[in-house]
Design goal:
This protein is an alpha/beta fold and 228 residues long. It has a single domain, classed as P-loop containing nucleotide triphosphate hydrolases (Rossmann fold, 3-Layer(aba) Sandwich). It is 51% helix and 11% strand. It contains 8 helices and 5 strands. A 5-stranded parallel beta sheet has the order 2-3-1-4-5, with helices on both faces. Helix 2 (39-45) packs antiparallel against helix 3 (47-69) and helix 3 (47-69) packs antiparallel against helix 4. The longest helix is centred in the N-terminal third of the chain and has 23 residues, at 47-69. The chain is globular, with a radius of gyration of 18 Å. It starts with a strand and ends in an 18-residue tail after the last helix. Bound molecules: adenosine-5'-diphosphate (ADP) and the ligand Nc1nc2c(ncn2[C@H]2C[C@H](O)[C@@H](COP(=O)(O)O)O2)c(=O)[nH]1. The ligand Nc1nc2c(ncn2[C@H]2C[C@H](O)[C@@H](COP(=O)(O)O)O2)c(=O)[nH]1 binds at residues 10-11, 14-15, 32, 34, 40, 54-55, 58, 79, 84, 87, 91, 149. Ligand LCKSPGMD is lined by residues 10-11, 14-15, 32, 34, 40, 54-55, 58, 79, 84, 87, 91, 149. InterPro entries: DCK/DGK, Deoxyribonucleoside_kinase, DNK_dom, P-loop_NTPase. Pfam families: dNK. Substrate binds at residues 32, 44, 55, 79, 84, 149.
Length: 228
């Protein structure tokens, strides 16, 4: 079984690359709950009131996805559970959670991570992190068009998004649950450019070979079989 998780800020291209990668590798994609998430619009309308509820909602759905993913042979998840605390910590730091909510959240997270430790596969095999600049992030958020995420909807989101990018750098540097790699999301348009898509897929395949999850002689013409 091979588990690949994507990470990166809002609009970085995680869901898009999850779809591309899982199709390419012949594995199952797992997406985080966004369009069917009833708390997300409430959070953007009143972050202080809903930050804790949203975090618990996401933690719960991420946990479900991980459990589902572990019943499949190989899979790609569009966001890691390890980013959960990053989001909540940032929201707490800007006063959107009470100390009691912070304590309860960390206790819950700790309990859930403890459950993960008991699962047949504790950690992913590879984390693929998509780096984007603020400008790219905003362009992609606009392109995707969820109304409540737009700067035109709420100008304070500029500070929120810039802050989020600042939290990601140390988070990625510290991440050590699995091998990891970065994709340059500013440089490669893996959505519209076939050439860029190939470059990015090659980078991921090379890393999977390096960490022993694909045979060294594997190439695109071979039947796609991720090594157990
Ligand atoms: N590398 C890329 N180049 C150009 N457009 C992209 C790229 N990655 C994603 N997009 C576009 O940006 C938007 C956000 O991508 P998405 O995959 O939903 O991001 P995320 O899941 O990280 O929030 C979508 O409209 C998608 O088509
Ligand atoms: N407060 C939090 N917001 C979160 C979290 N995970 C995702 N999100 C938000 C950010 C986006 O508006 C939306 C989807 O995220 P994408 O990166 O997939 O675009 O959900 C979280 O843990 N806390």
């Amino acid at each position: 079984m091979t588990v690949i998780v994507l990470s990166g800020p809002i609009g970085a291209g995680k869901s898009s690359l999850t779809g591309i990668l899982s199709k390419y590798l012949g594995t199952k994609p797992f997406y985080e709950s966004v369009d069917d998430n009833p708390v997300l619009p409430l959070f953007y309308a009143d972050p202080k009131k809903y930050a804790f509820l949203l975090q618990v909602y996401f933690l719960n759905t991420r946990f479900h996805s991980i459990k589902d993913a572990l019943t499949q042979d190989n899979n790609v998840l569009d966001r890691s559970i390890y980013e959960d605390a990053l989001f909540f910590q940032m929201n707490a730091d800007i006063g959107r959670a009470t100390p009691e909510e912070v304590d309860t959240y960390y206790e819950l997270l700790h309990n859930m991570m403890g459950e993960l430790d008991r699962m047949p596969k504790k950690n992913p095999d590879l984390l693929v992190h998509i780096n984007v600049s603020y400008d790219t992030m905003i362009k992609r958020i606009q392109k995707r068009g969820r109304p409540y995420e737009q700067l035109s909807h709420d100008s304070t989101l500029e500070d929120y998004y810039k802050r989020l990018l600042r939290y990601y750098k140390p988070w990625y540097d510290k991440y050590d649950y699995s091998p990891k790699m970065e994709i340059d999301g500013d440089k490669y348009d893996f959505m519209s450019s076939e050439e860029d898509r190939e470059i990015v897929l090659d980078q991921i395949v090379d890393k999977l070979k390096e960490v022993g999850k694909l045979p060294m002689d594997w190439d695109k013409s071979t039947d796609i079989q991720i090594e157990a």
